[in-house]
Amino acid sequence: MMNKLIARTLPYFPKKFVWLFSRKYIAGETIDEAIMAAQQLNERGMLVTVDLLGEFITNLDQARQNKDEYLRIIDRFEDDKIRGNYSLKPTSFGLLIDPEICYELVREIVDRAAAANNFVRIDMEDSKCVDMEIDLFRRLKADYPRHVGLVFQAYLKRTMGDLEALMDLQTADVPLNYRLCKGIYVESEEIAYKDYQRVNEHYLKDLEYLLKNNVYVGIATHDRKLVEGSLKIIEQYGIAKEQFEFQMLYGVTPELRQEIIDQGFKMRIYVPYGKDWFGYSTRRLKENPKMAAHIIKSLFIRG
């Protein structure tokens, strides 16, 4: 109850107060700050994927501004030789306003990344977006087979069916490339697993299916049990290190992150930045109130 109370009331606190906890999990407001964070992570042996904050926009002018900012991101990151790629949320480009304009804007971004021989990850959002985001991925994959990937959420009951339905896109020369996460959006029990054990169980089933079918997977988790379960699957099937990577959010579980790196596995950090950090932070708290206790604790205890 206390977590929910904090999550509901925090958006009404002064921004300076909210920034006290947000600063650990967000690179900053500007491209320069994102580059600095990415460079520091690169120097410590980690790859990155950069994300511009600002999903669920309300007009298409915002969508075009976000597209232009992503093109600047790509140019700057490539010029500065950042070892990383790009993640984006389709609602930042008007998915829920005009899906066709969203496709055109995202296509420009993927085209710019592909010209630099880089890669764009389409993030999966809440349940009303899933079908549209799968369709967006299919369209982009047809023209940019090596330069676009998708995210799946293990807590959605539909996920295994979606994975199976997309296997027609898999080829020996160009394997599919997915990020697998638990899922954070608030969904009904009709469409999403709620129990911790069941979510983890389905996460590992999804991961096993993907690895057995030679899909490249970004294993995105901060859950030690899932990391251990993933490593057992990798060992069981003799999966090469080139077929997967671990992924974590900027500023989260640094000790577990380092343990994975010390074992010689590839680690990619999701680096969010942008002026919408306040909206991002408060939305995440509303979606996952359990974060509140960890956030308050992090204000006073390092690590």
Architecture overview:
- The chain is globular.
- It has 12 helices and 8 strands.
- Helices cover 48% and strands 14% of the residues.
- Helix 9 (224-236) links the parallel strand 6 (216-220) and strand 7.
- By secondary structure, the chain is an alpha/beta fold.
- The mean pLDDT is 91.
- Helix 5 (99-115) packs across helix 6 (130-143).
Note the topology.
Layout: H1 2-9, H2 15-22, H3 31-43, E1 47-52, H4 60-79, E2 84-88, H5 99-115, E3 120-122, H6 130-143, E4 148-153, H7 159-165, E5 177-181, H8 196-212, E6 216-220, H9 224-236, E7 244-249, H10 254-262, E8 267-273, H11 277-287, H12 291-298
Parallel strand pairs: 1-2, 1-8, 2-3, 3-4, 4-5, 5-6, 6-7, 7-8
Brief description of this entry?
This protein is α/β, with parallel strands linked by helices.
Helix content: 40-55%
Nearest-angstrom radius of gyration? 18 Å
Q: Give the H and E element order.
A: HHHEHEHEHEHEHEHEHEHH
Unreliable residue stretches: none
Task: Name the features.
303 residues; alpha/beta; 14% strand; globular
